[in-house]
Amino acid sequence: MVKLGIIACAICASAGATIAAAPDISTRTKEAAALAEQGKFVEAFGALNEAEAAIWDRMPLTVQRALWVADKPTGFGMYTPRSDNIFDAGAPMHIYAEPMGFGWRKLGDLYHVDLKVDVVLRKQDGAELYRQPDFAKLAVASWVRNRAFITTLTYTFSNIPKGEYLVDNTLRDAVTGKAATFSLPFVVR
Question: What is the pLDDT of residue 20?
Fold first, then answer.
């Protein structure tokens, strides 16, 4: 039997914009250009940020980057990629992932991100070895709607025989109901 130990955390790194309603994307980008021409660069960035948030709200939940990393990431874009996906049985396996398109729930003055993660471990041929829904909850509260958000997952598969495997990670957004799955292959030697 394969045993699984999991550590999950979420880190919010840079700030997004606080927006009451999704503005028209074209209007906001034109406004940003006009503000920049007037030398009002902070305001121009604010208008671009609102246009970006409008796109974000319309997109599906997506994982723009997911990879095996050498150790636990320290922040958004702050990781060391592994040179391979080959692990010893029982060794910690770190994943860095950047979700996009998740939602925020405003409670009081704070915006809350609420993602849940399901995991499925499969052999390379697709045979399922292990499944655990809701194994991790990634929740963050912030004064702004952060979009620079990472998910770090650490797996430790014990009693796993040598071979080729795939770990499927499904992120489910409790705020929007959106979901996205990303899979990473790995080898146990």
Answer: 40
